[in-house]
């Protein structure tokens, strides 16, 4: 698989993950917590980095590798966020004043784009399962897969066809 294809598949997976989260929220009334919406932001950042890497790689092929490295860092950050949500935040009644809450509020995204980044539940209330597995674990698994794919993209030599 070429570097471009890896980056493109990663971006599509990220957008699909956010789409599933939005359907869960708006169709099935599963309200997100601060850690949920922070992970949405990380997924969208990975998608943007990947697609920018594909575009910029046409001019400077080395930028594809850089995009892979940056996406791997974001993926690792997403795994940490998902792990924290699952193991710490979901055990507490409130996400208030945690890093995710402070970051999302300070960014203005929760108020500016509430249909995507609005915080509507506590961490304890946001513990939701899909096919018997908590959303946070699905997110962690997807972040792990994306990190591996990103490292594969970063490790590939920058050639004309990659």
Automatic annotation (TrEMBL):
<feature type="transmembrane region" description="Helical">
    <location>
        <begin position="6"/>
        <end position="28"/>
    </location>
</feature>
<keyword id="KW-0812">Transmembrane</keyword>
<protein>
    <submittedName>
        <fullName>Disulfide bond formation protein B</fullName>
    </submittedName>
</protein>
<dbReference type="GO" id="GO:0006457">
    <property type="term" value="P:protein folding"/>
</dbReference>
<feature type="transmembrane region" description="Helical">
    <location>
        <begin position="40"/>
        <end position="60"/>
    </location>
</feature>
<dbReference type="GO" id="GO:0005886">
    <property type="term" value="C:plasma membrane"/>
</dbReference>
<dbReference type="InterPro" id="IPR023380">
    <property type="entry name" value="DsbB-like_sf"/>
</dbReference>
<dbReference type="GO" id="GO:0015035">
    <property type="term" value="F:protein-disulfide reductase activity"/>
</dbReference>
<feature type="transmembrane region" description="Helical">
    <location>
        <begin position="135"/>
        <end position="155"/>
    </location>
</feature>
<dbReference type="Pfam" id="PF02600">
    <property type="entry name" value="DsbB"/>
</dbReference>
<keyword id="KW-1133">Transmembrane helix</keyword>
<feature type="transmembrane region" description="Helical">
    <location>
        <begin position="66"/>
        <end position="84"/>
    </location>
</feature>
<dbReference type="InterPro" id="IPR050183">
    <property type="entry name" value="DsbB"/>
</dbReference>
<feature type="transmembrane region" description="Helical">
    <location>
        <begin position="104"/>
        <end position="123"/>
    </location>
</feature>
<dbReference type="InterPro" id="IPR003752">
    <property type="entry name" value="DiS_bond_form_DsbB/BdbC"/>
</dbReference>
<keyword id="KW-0472">Membrane</keyword>
<keyword id="KW-1003">Cell membrane</keyword>
């Amino acid at each position: 698989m070429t570097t471009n294809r890896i980056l493109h598949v990663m971006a599509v997976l990220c957008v699909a993950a956010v789409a599933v989260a939005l359907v869960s929220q708006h169709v099935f009334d599963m309200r997100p917590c601060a850690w949920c919406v922070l992970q949405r932001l990380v997924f969208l950042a990975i998608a943007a980095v990947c697609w920018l890497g594909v575009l910029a790689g046409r001019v400077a092929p080395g930028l594809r590798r850089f995009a892979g490295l940056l996406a791997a860092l974001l993926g690792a950050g997403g795994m940490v966020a998902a792990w924290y949500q699952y193991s710490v935040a979901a055990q507490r009644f409130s996400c208030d004043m945690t890093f995710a809450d402070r970051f999302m509020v300070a960014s203005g995204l929760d108020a500016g784009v509430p249909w995507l980044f609005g915080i509507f539940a506590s961490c304890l209330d946001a513990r939701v399962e899909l096919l018997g597995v908590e959303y946070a674990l699905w997110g962690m698994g997807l972040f792990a897969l994306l990190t591996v794919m990103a490292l594969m993209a970063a490790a590939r030599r920058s050639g004309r066809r990659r």
